[in-house]
Amino acid sequence: MQGTLDLLILRTLLHGPCHGQGIARAIQRQSEEVFFVDHGSLYLALQRLEDKAWIGAKWGVSENHRKARFYSLTAKGRAQLVDKTSQWRRLVRAIGTILGPEEQEG
Amino acid sequence: MPTVDDPLERLEFLQGTLEVLILRSLQSGPNHAYGISQFLERQSGHEFLVDNGSLYPALQRLLQRAWIVGQWKTSPNARRAKYYRLTPLGRQQLVAATSKWERFVEAMTRILAPQGNP
Fold first, then answer.
1. What would the 3-class secondary structure string for chain A be?
2. All domains of chain A, ordered by start, with CATH?
3. Is residue B20 within 8 angstroms of chain A, CB to CB?
4. What's the structural domain count of chain B?
5. What is the ipTM of this complex?
């Protein structure tokens, strides 16, 4: 789910700038390994978010001394995060109501 | 991301999910396409407007996987309509997909938890 990954990335960057691999690891860890983030989709998503100026990117050096792009949330991205989070909750509520236990229909 | 106000983005999110929702709508009995979209609209508190452009391809995919079958019948208002019903395989799939959905939501909720709320 493309939009979901965008939301997860924005949420992860709320804790501070991070490189791609770190973002993937954080999402996997926080989801308790329910989500597996493959690199292809991750980098496409990062590119998309950068194009929208929801995140910014800068070259830096990672903890294992490798050159890496560090991504950070922009003010615009932060606003989007708030927005998308509440939209996500709304949508999940609607789907949850449909999938919920069968009720008497009148 | 699911945008309730942006049909395109909403659709993108719903691909896959729509199929599960269709299966759920047939749990209590067979229905025609229009009935399915009405059910989804009503049950979601009018959050979802399922347009034919996404409904029919989704039904097609479900038919191909033999999760549903279709049969022509006459509807209560004397119109010919194709009625879809769940197969045993579709019923199994619904159970599996629902628990997968619950796991997905749990994981998302954990990540989006207000700890350090944006």
1. CHHHHHHHHHHHHCCCCEEHHHHHHHHHHHCCCCCCCCHHHHHHHHHHHHHCCCEEEEEEECCCCCEEEEEEECHHHHHHHHHHHHHHHHHHHHHHHHHCCCCCCC
2. 2-98 (1.10.10.10)
3. yes
4. 1
5. 0.81
